[in-house]
C-alpha cells in the first residue's frame, strides 16, 4: 500500500494545482490521508456481502483540523478520485485471479459513496459555521446597540471576515417577514453592491451595519427599502465599528 500512496502523491503533484500550493507539511499530511484512504478501501472491500459497512471519510480524521478547514469539498473529491485512479491502474495485479471486474465495480461504488459522505460532512460543517457566524453577528449588533464596545468587538467582526471602513448604521422597524430571510436578503444585496454588511432583528427593530460604502447615500442603497413601515434612522459615516457605538 505504501507504493500506491507514493504513486497517488506523484499524480496529485502532477495534476492538482491546489496540492502543489500546499506547504511541505500539509502535502505530507495529504499523503498520509491518501494512504489511509487506500487502507480504508482495502478494509471495506474485505467485508463482502451484507456485512460490508457504508463507506465514510473517517480516514480523513488523520489530518489536523487546520488542513481539513483549508481543503474544500471539491478538493477532497479530487483527492479520492486520484487515489482510486491509482488503484484502478494496478487492479490486475491487486485483484485475485478472475476478480478484476469485481474490484473495479467495488471501486466505483466506494468512490461514489465516499464522495456522498464527504458532501454530507461538509454540509454539516457549513451549517455549524453558519450557526456560529449568526451568533457572532447577533453579539456584534447587540454590543453596538447597547454601546458596550470593547476590544472583543473587532475580534468578533474579524472572525466574520469584516475588514471594511468606513461604517454607517441604520435602524428602524423590522418588516413583517421571517427575520433570517430579511437578514439573508440584506446580506445578498450588500454583496452585490460590494459592501460588507451585518444585521440583526431585535424585537420589532431592524439594525443594519454597512461597511465599505462610498458615503451614506451609497450605503443606503438596497438597505432602506428592506425596513418595515416607519422612519429609518441613518447614522453618520464613522471610521470604524467602535465609533459606530458612540
Helix run count: 11
Please trace the helix and strand order, writing H or E for each element.
Answer: HHHHHHHHEHEEHEH
The number of E-state strands comes to 4
Structural class: alpha+beta
Beta-strand residue fraction: 5-15%
Helical content (DSSP H or I, runs of 4+):
55-70%
How many domains? The number is 2
Sheet with the most strands: spatial strand order: 2-3-1-4
Radius of gyration: 25 Å
Structure description:
The chain has two domains: 2-130; 147-244, Alpha-Beta Plaits. Helices cover 60% and strands 10% of the residues. It has helices at 2-15, 17-20, 24-46, 65-70, 73-89, 91-94, 100-146, 151-159, 179-193, 216-220, 241-244, and strands spanning 167-173, 196-202, 205-211, 232-234. The protein has a four-stranded antiparallel β-sheet, sandwiched between helices. Helix 1 crosses helix 5 (73-89). The longest helix is centred in the middle third of the chain and has 47 residues, at 100-146. The model has no long low-confidence stretch (mean pLDDT 79).
SSE blueprint:
Blueprint: H1 2-15, H2 17-20, H3 24-46, H4 65-70, H5 73-89, H6 91-94, H7 100-146, H8 151-159, E1 167-173, H9 179-193, E2 196-202, E3 205-211, H10 216-220, E4 232-234, H11 241-244
Antiparallel strand pairs: 1-3, 1-4, 2-3
Index terms:
Alpha-Beta Plaits; 4-stranded antiparallel beta sheet; elongated; 10% strand; 246 residues; 2 domains
Amino acid at each position: 500500500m505504501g507504493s500506491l500512496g507514493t504513486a497517488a502523491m506523484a499524480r496529485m503533484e502532477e495534476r492538482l494545482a491546489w496540492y502543489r500550493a500546499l506547504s511541505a507539511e500539509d502535502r505530507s499530511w495529504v499523503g498520509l490521508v491518501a494512504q489511509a484512504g487506500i487502507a480504508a478501501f482495502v478494509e471495506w472491500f474485505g467485508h463482502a456481502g451484507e456485512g460490508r459497512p457504508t463507506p465514510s471519510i473517517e480516514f480523513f480524521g488523520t489530518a489536523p483540523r487546520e488542513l481539513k478547514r483549508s481543503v474544500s469539498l471539491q478538493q477532497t473529491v479530487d483527492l479520492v478520485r486520484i487515489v482510486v485512479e491509482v488503484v484502478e491502474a494496478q487492479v490486475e495485479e491487486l485483484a485475485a485471479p478472475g476478480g478484476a471486474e469485481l474490484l473495479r465495480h467495488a471501486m466505483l461504488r466506494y468512490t461514489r459513496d465516499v464522495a456522498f459522505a464527504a458532501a454530507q460532512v461538509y454540509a454539516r460543517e457549513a451549517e455549524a459555521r453558519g450557526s456560529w457566524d449568526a451568533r457572532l453577528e447577533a453579539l456584534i449588533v447587540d454590543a453596538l446597540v447597547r454601546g458596550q464596545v470593547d476590544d472583543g468587538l473587532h475580534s468578533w467582526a474579524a472572525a466574520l471576515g469584516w475588514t471594511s471602513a468606513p461604517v454607517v448604521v441604520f435602524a428602524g422597524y423590522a418588516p413583517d417577514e421571517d427575520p433570517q430571510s430579511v437578514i439573508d436578503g440584506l446580506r445578498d444585496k450588500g454583496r452585490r453592491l460590494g459592501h460588507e454588511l451585518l444585521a440583526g432583528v431585535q424585537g420589532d427593530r431592524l439594525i443594519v451595519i454597512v461597511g465599505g460604502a462610498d458615503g451614506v447615500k451609497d450605503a443606503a442603497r438596497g438597505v432602506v427599502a428592506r425596513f418595515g413601515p416607519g422612519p429609518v434612522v441613518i447614522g453618520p459615516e464613522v471610521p470604524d465599528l467602535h465609533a459606530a457605538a458612540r
